[in-house]
Amino acid sequence: MSSLAQTVMHSLDNVVQTAKIRDLSKDFVEATSNDGLTTDHGVKVSDTDNWLKVSDGTHAGPSLLEDQIAREKIHRFDHERIPERVVHARGAGAHGYFKVYDNSATKWTAAGVLTDPSRTTPVFLRFSTVQGSKGSADTVRDVRGFAVKFYTDEGNWDLVGNDIPVFFIQDAMKFPDIVHAVKPEPHNEIPQGQSAHNNFWDFVGLTPESAHMIMWVMSDRGIPRSYRMMQGFGVNTYTLINAEGKRVFVKFHFIPELGVHSLIWDEALKINGQDPDFHRKDLADAIGAGAYPKWIFAIQVIEEADEHKFDFDILDATKVWPQSLIPLHNIGELVLNRVVDEFFTEVEQVAFCTSHVVPGIGFSDDPLLQGRNFSYFDTQITRLGVNWEQIPINRPVCPVMNHHRDGARQHRIHRSEINYFPNRHNAGHPVSPSQGGYAEAMAGVQGMKQRVRGVKFQEHFNQAQLFVNSMTPIEKQHLIQAISFELSHVEDPVVYETYTKLLNNIDFELAKTVAQKVNGVIPDKPGRSNHGQKDATLSQFYYTPKEPSIVTRRVAFLVSDGFNILEVEAVRAALVSAKATTWIIGPRRGKIYADGESIGTGAGIMADHHFEGQRSTLFDAIYVPSGSHAEALASNGRAIHWIREAFGHCKAIAAVGTAAATVKYAINLPEVDIVNTLDTDEVVTSYGVVTTGKYNMKSVARDVLEIS
Ligand code: HDE
Q1: Omega of the bond leading into 256 within 30 degrees of 0 (cis)
Q2: Worst-scoring range by mean pLDDT, 256-260, 286-290, 575-579?
Q3: Under the phi-then-psi rule, with left for phi > 0, alpha for psi from -120 to 50, and beta for the rest, what region is 157?
Q4: What is the pLDDT of residue 546?
Q5: 25 C-alpha to center of ligand 1: Å?
Q6: Is the pLDDT of residue 82 over 50?
Q7: Helix (H) or strand (E) run with residue 700 in it
Q8: 3-class DSSP assignment, residue 615
Q9: Helix (H/G/I), strand (E/B), else coil: 21
Q10: Which residue of 127, 266, 391, 704 has the lowest C-beta tally within 10 Å?
Q11: Exposure class string for 30-56: b at 16+ Cβ within 10 A, else e
């Protein structure tokens, strides 16, 4: 398995050619041993280590301001940083492509990217967390950004989504408030990468429209196992416009091929410290290994005439369109197949704008979307300058021609005396819709200018309740634990009392249990009756693939001197051929000797890490082979901790022969049955592990790991 660094280096050798990669390659710079060092103005540099000084040759004397080479080096360094994003500062990205299966969406849209199956549209996808700054950890509890730039033949389409289908607020004007409330508090810049603090819960307690979103963020969706195992949602309601100019409302979805999987909170907390780059590495490693992350792209469509048929407003971003009412149409797929070559120029400089749509796609009056359409361009000006769309990662693959001029960091040299329209040459002229010019769909509006919310926007709890009702018991248990964790970190009683009261509008049991745990207001009866409705598609288990896969899953082999090497080799080969990744963990990084080998001279096997170098939290499953090493493992506190912790996190644990007793000893739960087998096929086709009775992995695992 290649490391992140190796993967990045290898990506150049394994260039995936889309129109965008060809475009970016115009700007590739590669240093080779033939290249000498130069200044930015191109002069060759003879010394890059010693500042020009006055010296007697024995002692260092004063440094001279005259040294333009040293000065340039420092100047350039001083200005390396640009402002981080106000939200979504921490991210990772990759290149890929998008394809539709057929032209079935033609009835709704004229957009070639959504209707032409012969096209392969290049994409760049940036994942992110929201609250933390650029250097924060990956596995915090938070919403994940899912921002896609489609480089279409008709211009860039930016679908700037999240891994959760709803949002905290209904009107863009509240955005600065929610962001100020969730970010580190202003007086002490605490906490980093967390929402567990007074100000956040104060705001959401006083903003009931956030109730539905809070249920999602506090659910296991807030701590994904991998970016590759998250859904993506456009969240806002957009419109599609067909060739006849007819408009429909649309929501966009991405469904991961690998299913939706999460960490459990204890793992997430530990990984934050053990490997803050866990998700970033996971993405690069999977792509580097050729296990390209893939999502089905689906749309939900509502005819204009049906806009008001629902008991919620379809333009309200705090509501989902339940799939039981509005089905998904799977129309295409998105694949990520290339890591970035340089983080800053690609992941940091990529800039998205919800207002960037292409012909056939339009907006709705969703008040959140309308505000977003203003905000994104604006923020890019501060972050990257007004000519941010000329930066390689942002520039379209189709021609750009207009009369916008000048501004900081203008790179285009316009060879024309014309910079206006109309002009005597008809240069840079508008293009009619029949020739591909963008045309808004006609839509009637009427009303008085006023600051209002729509009537149906006033209802905040029905769908929060629907979501909670739709959870499996284990998801509900995690939800309770998450809210209880967060409110335990809220110090002001006014805040946690307000929130526990609000919870009773969603679910009586939830409110009662959380209130009992956090010293909140314990309700004696439900705050409102439960409508009892459910929608199976809201549970993340709904997305578990019919054929579960262990592709890219991380399996650790726990060994000590005296392990059974034939068994390790056989199981390892089976796992590798199923495209899982395998890791040898032993008492030291170096050779570990097999049963029958003499220590120091045997062929052994190289351990990738020692027991303390990596923890069980970073793996999906562990395998403990048979052999005389079992006793050594049982007497090693770290090895025992590995097994015990993995068991506590409901991981699959395979233990064979003598190792079964070690595992049993480690977990210290006599009633647990251990499947004890030497048959590789059986290990590889069953759960292979602690499987029965009270601790049945299948029922308690957050992340059911099928070794198949
Ligand atoms: Fe954003 N959001 N947002 N947002 N958002 C930004 O733009 C904003 C919202 C989302 O990887 C900013 O370039 C407003 C919803 C993602 O570069 C900023 C409102 C959704 C990213 C901004 C919202 C998102 C951003 C900060 C309320 C899910 C990261 C830096 C009306 C559909 C994009 C930047 C990337 C980033 C504004 C609400 C997703 C300030 C005003 C809803 C994934 O412009």
Answers
A1: no
A2: 575-579
A3: beta
A4: 82
A5: 29
A6: yes
A7: helix 697-700
A8: coil
A9: helix
A10: 266
A11: eeeeeeeeeeeeeeeeeeeeebeeeee
Instruction: Given the cut 0.85, state whether the ipTM is greater than it.
Output: yes
Whether the CB-CB separation of 121 and 320 falls below 8 Å is answered with: no
Q: How far is the CA of 356 from the centre of ligand 1 (A)?
A: 13
- Give the model's pLDDT for residue 669: 63
Q: Is the CB of 161 under 6 A from ligand 1?
A: yes
Q: Comparing C-alpha atoms, which of 604, 13, 644, 613 is closest to residue 266?
A: 644
Token pair 């977990």 is found at 667
501-536 confidence digits (pLDDT tens) = 999 999 999 999 999 999 999 999 999 999 999 999
* Overall pTM surpassing 0.90 (yes/no): yes
Q: What is the DSSP letter of 2?
A: -
Return d(Cα 168, Cα 178) in angstroms, integer.
Answer: 8
pLDDT confidence of residue 654: 80
What is 395-410 written as a DSSP string?
S-SS----S----TT-
Active site annotation includes 330: no
Exactly one of 95, 156, 162, 373 is catalytic; which is it? Answer: 162
Amino acid found at 631: E
Distance in angstroms (rounded) separating the CA atoms of residues 525 and 374: 45
- 8 A C-beta contact, residue 206 and residue 234: no
Per-residue model confidence (pLDDT) at position 685 = 31
Q: Is 227 annotated as a binding residue?
A: no
Cα-to-centroid distance, 185 and ligand 1 (Å): 20
Banded pLDDT at 299 (limits 50, 70, 90): very high
Instruction: Report the Cα–Cα distance between both ends of the chain, in Å, rounded.
Output: 20
Taking only Cα atoms into account, the Rg of the chain, rounded to an integer number of angstroms, comes to: 28
Spatial neighbors of 503 by CB under 8 A, at least 6 apart, are 483, 510, 511, 514, 515
Tokens of 429: 């002229």
Neighbour count for residue 57 (Cβ, 10 Å): 5
For residue 15, CA distances in Å to 19, 96, 338, 514 come to 12, 11, 8, 52
Q: Given ligand 1 and candidates 372, 379, 382, 389, which is best to mutate, with the most ligand atoms within 8 Å of its CB?
A: 372
Domains of the chain and CATH, by start = 92-390 (2.40.180.10), 468-542 (1.20.1370.20), 547-700 (3.40.50.880)
372 lines ligand 1 (CB under 6 A): yes
Contacts of 383 (CB under 8 A, 6+ apart): 82, 83, 85, 351
| CA atoms of 91 and 202, how far apart (whole Å) | 27
Residue 1 predicted with pLDDT over 60: no
What's the rounded Cα separation, in Å, for the pair 217 and 204?
12
> Cβ atoms within 10 A of the Cβ of 80, count?
7
Residue closest to 492 by CA, chosen among 237, 107, 201: 201
Closest C-alpha among 145, 167, 266 to residue 214: 167
- Nearest-atom number in ligand 1 for the CA of 235 is 32
The closest-lying atom of ligand 1 relative to the alpha carbon of residue 167 is 42
pLDDT tens by residue, 174-233 = 999 999 999 999 999 999 999 999 999 999 999 999 999 999 999 999 999 999 999 999
Q: What angle do CA 215, 219, 221 make, to 5 degrees?
A: 115
Mean pLDDT, range 290-310, rounded to an integer: 97
Average pLDDT of span 28-53: 94
Cβ contacts of 323 within 8 Å, gap of 6 or more: 300, 535, 537
C-alpha 1/C-alpha 7 separation (Å) is 9
Per the annotation, the verdict on 469 as an active-site residue is no
Mean pLDDT, rounded, for 44-56: 96
Over range 411-439, report the average pLDDT.
96
